[in-house]
Amino acid sequence: MAEAYIIDALRTPVGKRGGGLAAAHPADLGAHVLEALMARTGVDPAAVDDVVFGCLDAVGPQAGDIARTSWLAAGLPEEVPGVTVDRQCGSSQQAVHFAAQAVLSGTQDLVVAGGTQNMSMIPIAFASRRAAEPLGLTEGPFAGSEGWRARYGDQPVDQFHGAELIADKWGISRTEMEEYALRSHRRAVRAADEGRFTRELVPYGDVTADEGPRRDTSAAKMAALAPVVPGGRLTAAVSSQVSDGAAALLLASERAVRDHGLTPRARVHHLSVRGEDPVRMLSAPIPATAHALKKTGLGIDAIDLVEINEAFAPVVLAWLEETGADPARVNVNGGAIALGHPLGATGCRLMTTLLHELERTGGRYGLQTMCEGGGQANVTVIERL
């Protein structure tokens, strides 16, 4: 049976909005990790078959197939192509899936999967709303679709609305969300202090560490914040941070491992993606995880570490309740509430951290999942070697 191996995984530090990466061209962020990835693996860049990158809001500096632009901006061979993927927040996790599937199919041997995003430069949802305003299109991607309206009516399709619906359905209080968010910051600070991120980080200029974790935050500070939506439970404190950054992995076939003298660090054990209610939007990791575990025959207790994207605290809290996963194994180094969520790069950022933490702890299986626009969720299970 064919295998898809992870050879290495690297990421930039995650910059906060307006922080140290805010002025960096997103292609340069991508180029930075690509150049480092090629240098650390020692692979001849000309042997790479394709570069698959995630990126959202592909306008301005993020337009024009930024996977290709990033590769060229890194000074790497022109004959290597690139393609950019948009599965919303799961874009670079999907890039990993496409790369692994190409290797598993036998059609390619060395594929780079990655993602890049500068949210300081290009605000979230710019492409779906503001970019179309000069054309007289101001109401977003769903307005005007007769088929959508016939099926879902005029319900708001918004991530904050979806997160509030999850909090309602699972009875999650604001206090529970804030307790979870505080734990995310504390775990991220501890991980940084213990050097857990050192091997996976490629400093970018003066930015040598993640800028998001707040050492001085507290339950009292969180409780003092106003809700994002009047009358709601969500605040900025229990939401992922607007961020900038990039990440990339190299995946290889057995033939590439042999021919290039590579040492695999993990194998891709499972890949899947599922969908559910696009209005509630953010709860798809629950059925997607159930589907993945059924396909693999693994129980949740067999998973040593989990990375589930902290788009909002209720996403993770509902997932924990439904799966019965041990919270001590989930987002052990903090998540997007503390570390940030550079949309198109987060999937590979999570995978990079998952790989390194499995190696640090000696775990065997790691599971990654994340909620995505349209009510979707990718699940990837990797096995440390």
Automatic annotation (TrEMBL):
Its EC number is 2.3.1.9. CDD domains: thiolase. The keyword Transferase applies. Residues 263-384 form the Thiolase C-terminal domain. One of its GO terms (molecular function) is acetyl-CoA C-acetyltransferase activity. Coiled coil: none annotated. Belongs to the thiolase-like superfamily. Thiolase family. This is Acetyl-CoA C-acetyltransferase. It comes from Streptomyces chrestomyceticus.
